Amino acid sequence: MEVVFRIGALAGEGAFVMGRTLGKIFARAGYYVNGYPEYPSLVRGGHNSYTIVVSDKPVYSPRQNVDILLAVSKDALLFHKDSLKDNAVVFYSKQFSTEGLEFKPGVKLSPLPISDVLKEAGAPVIMKNVAVMAAALSAVGLPISYLEKVLEEEFSRKGEEILNLNKKVAQLMYEKSTEKAEIQLKPIEGAPKRIYASGNEITALGALAGGLGRYGA
């Protein structure tokens, strides 16, 4: 059982933060996760992507073809449409036009009411990424509580108002997004605890475990 997610966004829109957040969520749900951040655009406004492979078996490499595309920017629809599997789901803002874009016949296009959700919640546009991640969890059947837990860890220090706004956005989109992926990722009961970390972080942890006392660079 394997599901491949890809996040596509303008540089500065948070593709890598979203990728790491979703990776952490699926690891906590008991899955093996492999994350591949495409080398980032060094110019704000360029395109970045982050691919996540989620599986019930170890994953040793990234994947090219995608089950779920999270198109944070309109460009992502164009750049990644040819990597979509036959039954893929594409989430994007309903404000983006798909006119002139040709998708495979089996691809499901799911425009999201992101602006409506933000307006209903009284939230700023910067919280749109939370809405997109909530739609992704809804698509694979993972409880919204996994996203809420990460939001608590990330935003508690910024105060209750910011935290609650993020949670409200997540809950509203989770309820409004009805498109379901072919494979559902329910939490794996009894799975060992796993962490989701970068190669740099794992290397540092290994050095500490091996007895490193001081490092200078």
Task: From the structure above, extract its key features.
217 residues, alpha/beta, 6-stranded mixed beta sheet, 37% helix, globular
Textual characterization of the structure:
The protein has 217 residues and is α/β, with parallel strands linked by helices. It has one domain (2-185, 192-209): Pyruvate-ferredoxin Oxidoreductase, domain 3 (3-Layer(aba) Sandwich), CATH 3.40.920.10. It is built from seven helices and six strands, in the order E-H-E-E-E-H-E-E-H-H-H-H-H. A six-stranded mixed sheet has the order 2-3-1-4-5-6. The longest helix is centred in the last third of the chain and has 17 residues, at 160-176.
> What class do helices, strands and sheet pairing give?
alpha/beta
Number of helical elements:
7
What best-fitting shape do the alpha-carbon axes yield? globular
* Sheet of most strands: 6 strands, mixed
Query: What do the pLDDT scores average to?
Result: 93
Q: Ranges with pLDDT <50 over ≥5 residues?
A: none
Q: Which architecture does the CATH hierarchy give at level 2? A: 3-Layer(aba) Sandwich
What's the short version?
It is built from seven helices and six strands; from the N terminus they run βαβββαββααααα. The protein is an alpha/beta fold and 217 residues long.
Write the layout of secondary structure elements.
Elements: E1 2-10, H1 15-28, E2 32-37, E3 47-55, E4 66-71, H2 75-80, E5 84-93, E6 108-112, H3 114-121, H4 128-140, H5 145-155, H6 160-176, H7 199-209
Parallel strand pairs: 1-4, 4-5, 5-6
Antiparallel strand pairs: 1-3, 2-3
Helix pairs in contact: 3-6, 4-6, 5-6
